[in-house]
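FAQ: What does the model actually see?

It sees only this:
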Amino acid sequence: MSGDITCDVAIIGAGFTGLSAADHLISKDREIVVLEAGDVAEGASGRTAGMVGTRYKLGWAALARTYGPDQARRLHALMCHAHARLHELLERYDASDCFDQRGQLIPAHHRAPLKELQDDAKWLASEVGDDAPTLLDAEQFARVGGTSGYAGAWFDSRGGGLQPVEYCRALAHGLLDRGVRMFTRSRVMTLEETDDAVSLTTRNGLVRARHVILATNAYTPPALVEPDMTRQLVPVSASMVVTEPLSTSVARTILPDGQVASDTRRLLHAFRMLPGDRLLFAGRADITGRRAHEPDSYLPLEQALACTFPQAAGTPIAFRWSGLVGVSRDGFPHVGRIGRRVSYAMGYSGRGVVLAQLLGLFAAKLALDQPIEAGVMDERRFLPWPARRLRIPVMQLMTWLYGHLDRRELARA
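And it is asked to produce this:
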């Protein structure tokens, strides 16, 4: 981007949130400018494992106990809305090939979380009439998952695997065709709100907008806005490894029906087969992300892959990458306003593949002064983390503790 530009709404970030917001705004005949510091989907949206799930961080029965049955039912409705929004965008931008909807599995790493999954299925059926999920026992999951050692699993046919980069590129090209102005390699350096506009400066230009949407999640620049939204988030690195092509005989043993899977550990493991008989395995390696370019930092993940799928042990790793996840205090994303002219949606805590489509829509509605009902995901509950300077050391300590608890539970099982 270069020169001076005026528009109705400027969106900072060209990932799931920003592109969904741009779609709603262009449909309302607003002049839109999207500013992206890197390339389209270069942040968390393009670095995710692409797991399309149907649950929040807490299970449904736990949500009802914590927030009450009314809020839990509202959260279910919002999740259904988020899925509908994803399918709407897939269809509108001719991106259906980016979503392989063959279901999501949630393997339980021992009996206690399997009982919680069973309670969730009962709650859904009795409270909202949702009987789509089914439960598998250990033997059934070993057969469909290709790995033993799990106590059973949850299966929901509405889930599946998204190719996130191709999906975002399809949206970006479609939005350009519809008249959205989009600038990559255009990092926003400053943001200043006045009575009648918001001024954004990049290295080579200035944007004046009536409203701004902050769609940057864990990549939000410190002190870009006041209050500083980075106080509400802890940036945690999620890591992925992808193997070289497996032999046909081995590939047929791992998720042969094409589902994606993410388990119930506190430090979860997620896995899916990719085109070309490659196995993707995701989890936590270096949570700070500072060693993301060092292959050795991925060794714990590669060891976990070999332990989970012994038949794939020894297969060379072809690709390694990490991306920052914005973790909120309550594990929910949040949408709201900063002042009169800035709205935001962020804090997805590892659940952004689906929820970012909905919260991007909500942020766009706020920019148009339209009402939204986000339940517990509204701005009132988006609380800052205490002891900001200690966030990373505390998260490192919690990661060690969660890993210790996971190992102890597995040993007991």
